[in-house]
Amino acid sequence: MLSDDLSWFLELAETEHVGDAAAVLGVPQSTLSRRLGRLEHRIGTTLFDRHGRSLALNSRGQVLRRRIRAAVTQLDLGESEVRRLLDPETGLVRFDFMHSLGTWLAPLVIHRFVRDHPRAEIRLHQGIGTELLERVIADESDVALCSPQPTGEGLAWREVLRQPLALCVPVDHPLAGRTAVRLSEAAGERFISTPTGLNSRDLLEKVARDEGLALSRIPI
Questions:
Q1: Is the whole model's pTM more than 0.70, yes or no?
Q2: How many Cα atoms occupy the beta-carbon half-sphere of 145 within 13 Å?
Q3: Selection from 132, 130, 112, 131 nearest residue 122 by Cα
Q4: What is the four-CA torsion angle of 20, 22, 26, 31, rounded to 10 degrees?
Q5: Alpha carbons within 13 A on the beta-carbon side of 125
Q6: What's the CA dihedral at 36, 40, 42, 43 to 10 degrees?
Q7: For the segment 58-107, what is each residue's pLDDT rounded down to a tens digit?
């Protein structure tokens, strides 16, 4: 990381001797001298006062050392935090799910995961399927429970279960008591569905198209 690129200056500022610092860093003295020369050239001033082979960190070098030390500390902390987030036992899992799964399937999945990974942090988000897919693609979520199967590239998908699509009718309806119904058998019936834009509505419209039907909205 960048902290490795800056650490040589901190070592040189500590020892104030090119040979000693080069030995600790495991690089030739000439390499370390060139690094210092390039750094001073870029900044436009010297950072050490030369006394023969010895160096003395001047006031400008002290300012830079303080800032570099703070930057290295922050970079190391950032690296440690990222590693913690990637740790399946203590890291962060961003878990998304559709509203319709929030009362039964999502809690079951969360319960089992927490049971096996009690120290992990879980961040939850509910939404419609298309939104959840967009969040995964944008790296705003790690995994999402949604439907139908995504068709875009860059997404892995696994079927968890199949949920039947049900038709609810009055007890005296001709289709009552049936264990399976084709949507075409309900053609011409007025029924209530979820609003346009939700995945369940998209699925219903797909089934209708497959049956050669067209859904139309009737004002209430």
A1: no
A2: 22
A3: 112
A4: -170
A5: 20
A6: 140
A7: 999 999 999 998 888 888 878 877 877 778 788 888 999 998 899 999 99
